[in-house]
Amino acid sequence: MVLKYGAREARSKFAEVLGRVGYGGEGVIVERSGKPVAVVVPVDMYASLVGDRKARFQVLDRIRSKLPEIP
Hints:
This protein has 71 residues and is of the alpha+beta class. It has three helices and three strands. The protein has a three-stranded mixed beta sheet. A hairpin with a 2-residue loop joins strand 2 and strand 3. It is elongated and about 55 Å long.
């Protein structure tokens, strides 16, 4: 479940936000003037996202290395 907090509310309830993310496994979207500006996610989810991103770029690099050089 993803929760939404305004920036001011997130700042005043920072310990609660960290608890929900760290112990509850929930994601939190922080908004400013109604627009999302940041997301707080559990560390394991972040690590998974970073790992997936690296794997995708490695696939792209392998594909690019097999393409002919075009001047």
